[in-house]
Amino acid sequence: MEIKESLLRVENLKKYFPVKGGILGRKEIKQIKAIDGVSFDVQQGETFGIVGESGCGKSTTGRTILRLLEPTEGKIFFQGKNIAELNKSEMRKLRKDIQIIFQDPFASLNPRMKVREIIEEPLINFEVTDRSEREKRVLEVADQVGLTKAQLSRFPHAFSGGQRQRIGIARALISKPKLIIADEPVSALDVSIQSQVLNLMRDLQKEFGLTYIFISHDLSVVKHFCDRIGVMYLGKMVEIAGKNRLYEKPLHPYAEALLSALPSSHPLQKKQRIILSGDVPSPSNPPNGCTFHPRCFKCMDMCKTVNPTLQPVSDQHSVSCHLYHLGQEQSAAGELI
Amino acid sequence: MRKKSSILLTLMLVFALVLTACSSKTETSPTESSKKNAANPVKDRKNELVIGVSAEPQNWDPIDVFLLDWSTIATSVFEGLVDRTLDLELQPGLAKSWKYLDDKTLQFKLREGVKFHDGEPFNADAVKFTFDRLLGEEGQKGPQYSNYSSIDKVEIVDEYTVNLKLKVKDPVILTKLAGYGAVIVPPKYIKEKGDENFNNNPVGTGPFKMTSYKRDQEIVLEKNPDYWKEGLPKLDKVVFKVIPEASTRLAELQTGKIDIMKRVEVSQAKTVKETAFLELRDVGTPTAFALRFDVAKKPLDNKLVRQAINYAVDKDAIIKEILSGYGKPISTFQSDLSFGNNPDLKPYPYDPEKAKELIKQAGVKEGTSLDVMIPGNDGNFKEIAQAVSFYLEEIGLKVNIKTADGTTMNSDLIPQGKAGHMYRQGWGGWTLDFDNTAYLMYHEGEFWNPSFKDEKVERLLTAQRNTVDQKEREKIFKELTEILYDLAPELNLYSAVDLYAVNKRVQNFQPPHEDRLRLEEVSVK
Amino acid sequence: MIGYVIRRLFHTVLVVFAISLLIFFSIRLTGDPVSVMLSAGEPSKEAIAQLKANLGLDKPLYVQYFIFLKGLVMFDFGESFRSGGPVIDLIMDKAGATLALAVGGILVSIVIAIPVGILSAVKRGTFVDFFGRVFSLMGISFPNFWLGIMLILIFAVNLKWLPSSGFDGPQNLILPSITLGMILSGILARLVRSSMLEVMNQQYISTAKSKGISDWAVIIKHAFRNALLPTVTFIGLQFGSLLGGAVIVEQIFSWPGIGRLIIDAINQRDYPVVQGGVIFLSIIMVFVNLVVDLSYSLIDPRIKSGGSGHA
Amino acid sequence: MTSLQPQEQIHQKEMDVLPKKSHIRSFWKFIKKNPAGFIGMLLVILSVAAALLSQWIAPFEPTKASLSSRLVPPSWADENGESAFLLGTDQVGRDLLSRIIYGTRISLMVGFLGVLISMVIGTILGLVSGYFGKWLDDFIMRIADIQLAFPFILFAIVIMSVLGTGIWKIIIILGLTYWVGFARLIRGQVISLKEQEYIQAARAIGGTQFRIIRKHILPNVLSSILVLGTMYIAEFILLEASLTFLGLGVDPTIPSWGGMLADSRNYVTTAWWTATFPGIAIMLTVLGFNLLGDWLRDRFDPNMKV
Amino acid sequence: MVQKVLEVEKLKVGINDDGRKIAIVNGISFTLEKGETLGIVGESGCGKSMTSLSLMGLLPPGVEWLEGDIQTHDLHFKKFNKQDWRKVRGKRIAMIFQEPMSSLNPVYTIGKQIMEMILSHEHVSKQQARDRALEMLKLVGIPRPEQVLDEYPYQLSGGMRQRVMIAIALSCNPEILIADEPTTALDVTIQAQILELMKKLQEQLHMSIVLITHDLGVVAEMCNRVIVMYAGEIVEEAKVVDLFDETKHPYTKGLLASLPDIADEKEYLSSIPGIVPAPENMPSGCRFAPRCPNVHQRCMEAPPLFDVKGSKVKCWLYEHGDSEVVM
Question: How many helices (H) and strands (E) would you count in chain A?
Answer without folding.
Answer: 11, 12
